[in-house]
């Protein structure tokens, strides 16, 4: 559709600069509710043994539930890429004895909003409902989870819509460069594939494929659930049994290998554009690595999401070379990376790239000051309540992410201490560890004005 | 999944909000309604002696407070030839004052893990921070400080102008849909300043300078031209005390004339704008009509039309139960997307828009013809009581969901109060929605959705048949 988009202009980062799939915000991957927030998480186990984390709150008469089945598009069989994504478009297109039309009307009348989505590593679902109509809402959600119909007509329609979206992006520079970036970085791994599939792979998917995929990926062994709102633990226990108890005990997941990101390469996507998009990928760090917070604080100082990072100061504030610039730790189930992205005027792209690399070198060679580290600790400690308690849906998402990352229900209490304990030497060591490898660099823009090859070797 | 924006109802609403980027009135929350709101959540509204209006929206669930200062100035208030100055100035507000060096405000926010940002629309400019309640006093002091004490030098203005040119590059030049959208607005509005992009025309941004910024600042940035909205873990008495100690010390600014802008002449033509672009592979189109907003409708004696237009756009094209989606995407299978939207929270006349894109062997012309047929059917036969009831329920329940987000609530109040609306309007909105009849909707559809007085935009591939 045509965007009607010029009404508001945020000063912050344009999404385009962070369009790469690798840049999925890692912040959500380990966000935590500080103890002072007064958010009490209950560990709920249903009569039949389904587990969930609950934050009970009656100040607004709504209930938000979010859940995830580990697996996601990495489970798409070869040749049927796009299966998980297509499946998530079909949960409100008929379930149980209700066809698509009837199901949607009942959902609308129940005053509830349901959505499903597929990521590389999980399929997520959520529902936001009015407390007073929750019986009907939960009944519909139960049907969607346990007995989706995958009728041929909606399957064909949703497939057509996805294909139309793929075709619509066929000539779009951002889409093309995202594809090129994923293929270059994750060469040969499921992460290299487009999770929405291609026209050809989508064409091969049948309702039987969808049913089989649902049957083997929706199970109790790979399920996590977070609930927030006007519901008590006992009632939630009954709901959990209704929703999930009759799922298979064990998911049948295909093992996925670790992805070794291919660094030390340059990817160019030539396009005659006024702006050149730059992306750099360095090694990342695993979520369970003892030095994770040292690396996280280092990244925050280098290019984290505030108006005071090194990259923001050098590229935007001092020189006006870009509107948005930042870095993030991009962690997935089977990979990790530190990724930097920006978009800058094409005639000065080489200068911007060199400035970024100079800041990276400075971080690796000298690192931050004690004062900078203290400042970053304050931000990283304080930011969680603000970033994650904004709404019931945000809290529910946090509850799910914490469980997926296996951080434990007491993690909230431990987290501030973990951050406080990080030393300057550890941050400097993390910088050396991540930032002294030759990165993967992608340059999307006009060939003639493109930046020179990276200053040191190791180029393919 | 990527499809969610077109298909999923809540996703769709978010998309609409993001696209229109102005809190729509149907998203409005109503604290005074009977839906079991604790008394502690009562909203307070008062004025300081210097004219600053203050709204407090208590929400004690989490130790977070959203502090937003809204100015009643936007892109449509700029002087001729100075397009983009409102937005440019929004950036300059981060540049430091006589007592607060550049960057220190942002450091104070970051130091406590807060978040901050600002945004500019046609009708308003707003600045906000989300912080823990104990930092509210500091935020208010710093925001009040930059209301009047900004230091504007050529040294800070030059690089920031370059940032804005890059912002324009990212948002507009890099996106064919945005390029076309600018041209559609410039065609839809021939006399009213909504024809000018908020970010500004490229050649005018390049010329903006310190004198322009200073003149803009001195004219529009004053307590009597602003609204303070504080939502979250705080009570009204505390906010009043803090506001009097900070904002209350800023002198009242000049008396500004009423925001009367040139009105559109009567439109008697069908206008067409076409953009062909190598980055486009799927054609799409939209058709827009100038219609009353909540404020302009009331001002022009057309009260009630906005509520009807809101429900019209919902029934015709708001999400996956709408007529356009059901008919074109589901039943006929000719469109990958089809819908409609209306944004009523503007100071002056706004627009209602329908759009669509073909799929499979269907052409763009097929989609356009089918959309026209649905509009004709609605004008001829009206809407059913069942679909009207469902649309109303969706609006009314969105009020309850809106209360779940303190920043969303603050935005609803700020955008309403800076576009000519009142808290009374927000309070009365549910009743006004309930009062809309099927005949009201049919009447506004017949009155406004006339293709011979519309603007149609086509976004097409670089080569090939328009379809």
Give a structural overview.
The complex is a heterodimer of chains A (460) and B (467). Helix content of chain A is 39%, strand content 19%. Chain A has 460 residues and is of the alpha+beta class. In chain A, a hairpin with a 5-residue loop joins strand 1 and strand 2 (51-56). In chain A, helix 9 (292-303) crosses helix 12 (370-388), helix 10 (310-317) runs antiparallel to helix 11 and helix 11 crosses helix 15 (424-435). The model of chain A is unreliable at 1-37 and 449-460 (pLDDT under 50). Chain B folds into two domains: 33-249, 2-Layer Sandwich (Cytochrome Bc1 Complex, Chain A, domain 1); 265-461, Cytochrome Bc1 Complex, Chain A, domain 1 (2-Layer Sandwich), CATH 3.30.830.10. In chain B, 43% of the residues lie in helices and 16% in strands. At the A-B interface, helix 1, helix 2, strand 6, helix 4 and strand 11 of A face helix 1, helix 2, helix 3, helix 4 and strand 4 of B.
Tell me the layout of helices and strands:
The complex is a heterodimer of chains A (about 450) and B (about 475).
Chain A: E1 42-45, E2 51-56, E3 62-70, H1 83-88, E4 94-95, E5 98-99, H2 100-109, E6 112-118, E7 122-130, H3 134-146, H4 152-168, H5 173-185, H6 199-203, H7 207-217, E8 223-229, H8 233-244, E9 266-270, E10 275-283, H9 292-303, H10 310-317, E11 322-332, E12 335-345, H11 349-365, H12 370-388, H13 392-404, H14 411-420, H15 424-435, E13 440-445
Parallel strand pairs in A: 2-8, 9-13
Antiparallel strand pairs in A: 1-2, 3-7, 3-8, 4-5, 6-7, 10-12, 10-13, 11-12
Helix pairs in contact in A: 3-8, 9-12, 9-15, 10-11, 11-15
Chain B: H1 4-7, H2 9-20, E1 44-47, E2 53-58, E3 65-71, H3 85-92, H4 104-111, E4 115-120, E5 125-131, H5 136-148, H6 154-173, H7 176-188, H8 202-205, H9 210-220, E6 226-232, H10 236-245, E7 271-277, E8 284-291, H11 294-299, H12 305-317, H13 323-331, E9 335-342, E10 350-358, H14 364-381, H15 385-402, H16 406-417, H17 423-434, H18 438-448, E11 455-461
Parallel strand pairs in B: 2-6, 7-11
Antiparallel strand pairs in B: 1-2, 3-5, 3-6, 4-5, 8-10, 8-11, 9-10
Helix pairs in contact in B: 3-9, 12-18, 13-14, 14-18
């Amino acid at each position: 559709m045509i965007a009607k988009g010029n009404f508001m202009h945020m000063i912050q980062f344009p999404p385009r600069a962070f369009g790469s799939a690798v840049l999925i915000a890692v912040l959500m991957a380990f966000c935590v509710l500080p103890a002072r927030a007064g958010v009490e998480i209950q560990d709920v186990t249903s009569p039949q043994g389904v587990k969930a984390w609950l934050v009970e709150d009656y100040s607004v008469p709504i209930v938000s539930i979010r859940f995830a089945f580990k697996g996601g598009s990495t489970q798409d069989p070869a040749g049927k890429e796009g299966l998980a994504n297509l499946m998530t478009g079909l949960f409100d297109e008929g379930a149980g004895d209700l066809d698509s039309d009837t199901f949607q009307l009942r959902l609308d009348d129940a005053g509830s909003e349901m959505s499903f989505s597929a990521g590389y590593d999980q399929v997520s679902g959520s529902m936001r409902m009015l407390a007073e109509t929750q019986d009907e809402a939960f009944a519909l959600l139960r049907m969607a989870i346990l007995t989706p119909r995958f009728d041929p007509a909606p399957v064909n329609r949703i497939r057509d819509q996805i294909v139309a979206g793929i075709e619509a992006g066929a000539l779009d520079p951002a889409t093309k460069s995202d594809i090129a970036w994923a293929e270059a970085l994750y060469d040969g791994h499921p992460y290299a594939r487009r999770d929405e599939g291609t026209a050809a792979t989508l064409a091969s998917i049948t309702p039987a494929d969808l049913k089989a995929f649902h049957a083997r990926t929706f199970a109790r062994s790979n399920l996590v659930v977070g609930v927030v709102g006007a519901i008590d633990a006992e009632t939630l226990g009954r709901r959990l049994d209704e929703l999930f108890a009759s799922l298979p005990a064990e998911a049948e997941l295909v093992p996925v290998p670790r992805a070794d990101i291919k660094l030390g390469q340059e990817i160019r996507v030539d396009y005659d554009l006024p702006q050149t998009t730059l992306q750099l990928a360095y090694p990342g760090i695993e979520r369970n690595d003892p030095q994770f917070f040292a690396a996280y604080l280092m990244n925050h100082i280098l290019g984290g999401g505030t108006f005071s990072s090194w990259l923001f100061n050098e590229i935007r504030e001092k020189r006006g070379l870009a509107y948005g610039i930042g870095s993030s730790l991009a962690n997935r189930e089977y990979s990790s990376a530190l990724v930097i992205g920006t978009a800058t005027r094409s005639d000065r792209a080489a200068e911007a790239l060199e400035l970024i690399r100079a800041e990276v070198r400075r971080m690796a060679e000298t690192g931050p000051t004690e004062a900078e580290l203290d400042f970053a600790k304050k931000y990283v400690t304080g930011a969680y309540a603000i970033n994650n308690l904004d709404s019931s849906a945000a809290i529910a998402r946090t509850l799910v992410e914490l469980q997926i990352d296996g951080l434990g229900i007491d993690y909230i209490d431990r987290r501030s201490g973990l951050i406080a304990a990080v030393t300057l030497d550890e941050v400097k060591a993390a910088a050396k560890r991540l930032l002294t490898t030759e990165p993967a660099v992608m340059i999307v823009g006009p060939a003639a004005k493109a930046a020179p090859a990276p200053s040191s070797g190791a180029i393919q | 999944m990527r499809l969610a924006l077109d298909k999923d109802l809540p996703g769709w609403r978010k998309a609409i909000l993001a696209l229109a980027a102005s809190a729509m009135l149907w998203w409005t929350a109503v604290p005074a309604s009977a839906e079991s709101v604790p008394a502690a959540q009562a909203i307070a509204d008062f004025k300081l002696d210097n004219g600053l209006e203050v709204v407090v929206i208590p929400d004690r669930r989490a130790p977070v407070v959203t502090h937003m200062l809204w100015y009643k100035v936007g892109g449509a208030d700029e002087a001729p030839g100075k397009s983009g100055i409102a937005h440019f100035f929004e950036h300059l507000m981060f540049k430091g004052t006589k007592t607060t060096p550049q960057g220190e405000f942002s450091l104070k926010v970051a130091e406590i893990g807060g978040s901050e940002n600002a945004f500019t629309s046609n009708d308003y400019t707003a600045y906000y921070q989300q912080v823990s309640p104990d930092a509210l006093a500091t935020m208010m002091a710093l925001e009040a400080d930059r209301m009047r004490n900004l230091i504007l030098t050529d040294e800070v203005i030059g690089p920031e102008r370059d940032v804005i040119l890059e912002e324009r590059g990212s948002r507009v030049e890099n996106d064919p849909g945005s390029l076309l959208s600018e041209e559609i607005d410039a065609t839809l509005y021939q006399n009213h300043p909504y024809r000018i992009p908020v970010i500004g025309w490229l050649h005018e941004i390049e010329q903006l300078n310190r004198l322009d910024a200073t003149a803009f600042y001195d004219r529009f940035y004053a307590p009597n031209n602003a609204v303070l909205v504080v939502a979250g873990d705080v009570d009204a008495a505390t906010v009043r005390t803090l506001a009097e100690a900070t904002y209350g010390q800023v002198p009242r600014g000049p008396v500004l004339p009423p925001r009367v802008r040139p009105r559109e002449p009567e439109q008697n033509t069908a206008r067409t704008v076409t953009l062909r672009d190598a980055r486009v592979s799927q054609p799409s189109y939209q058709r827009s009509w100038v219609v009353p907003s909540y404020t302009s409708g009331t001002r022009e004696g057309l009260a009630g039309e906005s509520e009807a237009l809101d429900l019209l756009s919902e029934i015709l094209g708001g999400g996956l139960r709408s007529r356009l989606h059901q008919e074109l995407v589901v039943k006929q299978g000719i469109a990958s997307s089809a819908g409609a939207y209306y944004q009523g929270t503007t100071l002056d006349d706004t627009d209602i828009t329908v759009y669509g894109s073909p799929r499979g062997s269907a052409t763009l012309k097929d989609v356009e013809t089918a959309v026209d047929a649905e509009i004709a059917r609605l004008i001829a036969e009206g809407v059913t009581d069942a679909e009207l009831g469902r649309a109303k329920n969706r609006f009314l329940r969105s009020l309850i969901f809106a209360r779940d987000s303190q920043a969303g609530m603050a935005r609803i109040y700020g955008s309403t109060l800076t576009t000519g609306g009142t808290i009374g309007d927000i309070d009365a909105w549910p009743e006004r929605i309930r009062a809309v009849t099927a005949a009201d909707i049919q009447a506004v559809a017949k009155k406004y959705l006339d293709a011979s007085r519309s603007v149609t935009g086509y976004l097409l591939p670089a080569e090939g048949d328009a379809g």
